[in-house]
Write a structure and sequence with these properties.
Helix content is 38%, strand content 21%. It is built from 13 helices and 14 strands. The two termini are 18 Å apart.
Amino acid sequence: MQKKLLKEHYIVLTHKYTTGVDDDLVYYLKERFHVIHIMHEFSSVKTRRTIVDNYKNGLKLTTTVYKNIIFNNRFTVYIKEIFLSIYLIYRHSSPGTKVICCDGLNTFFSIISKYILKRKITVVFWSVDFVPKARFKNKLVNYVYKKIDYYCSLLCDEKWDLSERMAEGRLVEYGIKIKDYKSYKLVPYCVWLDESIFVDYEDSEKNTIVYMGHISKNSGLELVIDLIANVKNLKLKVIGDGPHLNVIKLYAASKNILSNCIFMGKVDDYKMLRNEIARSAVAVALYLKKESIFTYYADPGKIKTYLGCGVPVITTSIPWNAIDIQHNNCGRVVDETLDSLKKAINFTLEYNQEFRVNSRIYSRKFNCESVYKII
């Protein structure tokens, strides 16, 4: 990649549990600009640290870790993050710096910083999720979330969305139209095609179904385990971690197929992750309707990662691009029944090589090099 360094300076600010869209953006920007990547650990991470990576000329110069010593509940941690974000933006920004925030709370921090510091920075609110109904179990927290989302969408300098459904949802929920934003861009989840290997079906793990991602009630893995218990020779590879992992392991044991399952845990090495996916025969993203509040408005990253690796995907009708994937013969859309899943897996395995080629072709439209040119 030819480097063309410019004077622009970026700060990418996010709450983090595992790899996400911010990593792809930083990977793109760091080859071209000076980038500060600020990562507040997600609420499910016990340490709740803040990690700051400093990139210049494509190289990571420093990593600074701010430990969470005295703040031990959600409210006090957020107070800490507000003051720490203001400090870090003060320390690392200059007039013209673009601060890209990957959620409403970080956008709120950055807007406060902009006005307190009276610094001419550009605050970008990049919505990586939009959940207008029951985002949190606590009604007060959910009310605050919606207010932050509403006001930050209007007060930020640039509004980015992962999917078109997000803008449609805000129109219905808040009455916000596209023209109401100061600036609006659609910046979807992307994949690095040039860095993803392609494995022909003949060289793949022919009977392996792969799942990659956060393991929650919405993963649909119980249905996959039911399939493996009913169809000989199929195997399941699970890459990821989450609160539902032990439930899945126990369910597999109850079906006497634990030996047919490989639980790899989190794979932080992105190259290794892509290789493990690419060697698999079929991928699954079975979003369940009753648990779909996070998925309907989103742009599920795992689906695009699967397709970018050339692996056909079996999904439900929840994702915005489900029908498009089936239309382009990159996978199949199923309902939440064993019979539907069994038919889709058999069909995808029968025409697997064709589906693998189609998946790579289809994924060209969301290649990161193309997606990030507009920013």
